[in-house]
Design brief:
Helices cover 30% and strands 21% of the residues. It has 327 residues and is α+β, with helices and mostly antiparallel strands. Strands 4-5-8-6-7 form a five-stranded antiparallel sheet. The chain is globular. The mean pLDDT is 97.
Length: 327
């Protein structure tokens, strides 16, 4: 373990000032991801800045929708009555993640920033373009059975965001409130928050140096909308998704009035499928429609030898999620 200093920031201004003075410092809340990276010597911050005293908490209904503080814990959000009642897919994505112990510790903001679980990224013995730009991507020809098939590039095929929550939030147009080192806040759609790998896979989000996630806001859900989150994994608990689907439908008289679709476990970022939504909207709520939408969602897939199965798996996962909601 490398030596580091620890400071508990009393305000956002203090936290960002400390980060400005020490650019390589790291923010810490629950620590469930950061400590793993530090133990593996993948991240070696000279200073940890504890954010837990900051007022980034609360789960409340506002005129803009449901606002969730970035320092709220995953378990508290997943079990909150407002989330369970109005955003079932978001609740399910949280309660299907990790383990109870980790959910009690992990913050919402930290969850949205967790790093890929690609084995080559997590093992410093291998080169990795995410860790050292230009060093190569051994996953291209190595073990990639659980990696991405959508939005990939010749520089990286990692499932960059490995979790569940962001997939559900992307489906329902969640917006992040970010605060920079000058105290200025900006609103960013979560869909625009993550970057595709392209030639710069080490740049995963649009966060500026030292910028903080303050809150997540989910727009108000239409009363007729039903939603769910379906996750397929190699074992029944404490495992990341091989494929997942967050869906929302408004169905009236057997016809789909509006649809929301996002896929997890298969994209280089949480994957919102506008193509699937276009197929669904205005069509009858039937299995044939759902299969057509699933085919559209995976139209641009670029599988490799060992993850080719994910095309069919993702399609079937999406169909099952849509059938569940429609019924």
């Amino acid at each position: 373990m490398n030596n580091f200093s620890y400071t508990s920031a009393a305000s956002a201004k203090e936290a960002t000032a400390l980060r400005k003075d020490t650019p390589q410092a790291a923010y810490i809340a629950g620590g469930t991801t950061l400590l793993d990276l530090m133990k593996a010597n993948l991240q070696q911050p000279p200073q940890l800045i504890d954010l837990n005293r900051l007022p980034f908490r609360g789960i409340e209904q506002t005129k803009d929708g449901l606002r969730i503080g970035a320092l709220e814990r995953m378990s508290d959000v997943g079990e909150h009555p407002l989330v369970v009642q109005h955003y079932p897919a978001v609740s399910q994505s949280l309660l299907l993640a990790a383990s109870p112990q980790l959910r009690h510790m992990a913050s919402i903001g930290g969850n949205l920033l967790q790093r890929t679980r690609c084995g080559y990224f997590r093992d410093a013995a291998f080169p990795c373009n995410k860790r050292v730009p230009g060093s190569g991507c051994p996953a291209l020809t190595g073990d990639h059975h659980n990696l991405a098939i959508l939005g990939v590039s010749e520089s990286c095929i990692a499932t960059s965001y490995p979790g569940d929550l962001s997939v559900a939030l992307v489906a329902f147009d969640a917006v992040l409130t970010l605060q920079n080192q000058k105290g200025k806040q900006r609103q960013v759609s979560l869909t625009d928050f993550y970057r595709l790998p392209g030639n710069t896979p080490h740049l995963e989000t649009i966060l500026e140096p030292g910028e903080l996630i303050v809150a997540v806001t989910i727009p108000a859900a239409p009363p007729a909308q039903r939603s769910t989150y379906l996750k397929v994994r190699e074992r029944s608990s404490y495992a990341y998704a091989l494929a997942s689907a967050a869906v929302g439908l408004e169905v009236q008289g057997g016809s789909i009035r509006a649809a929301r679709v996002a896929l997890g476990g298969v994209g280089a970022q949480p994957w919102r499928s506008r193509a699937a939504e276009q197929v669904l909207t205005g069509a009858p709520a039937t299995e044939a429609t759902f299969r057509a939408a699933a085919a559209a969602a995976l139209q641009g897939a670029q599988p490799r030898e060992h993850n080719r199965y994910k095309v069919e798996l993702a399609q079937n996962t999406l169909v099952q999620a849509l059938m569940k909601v429609a019924s």
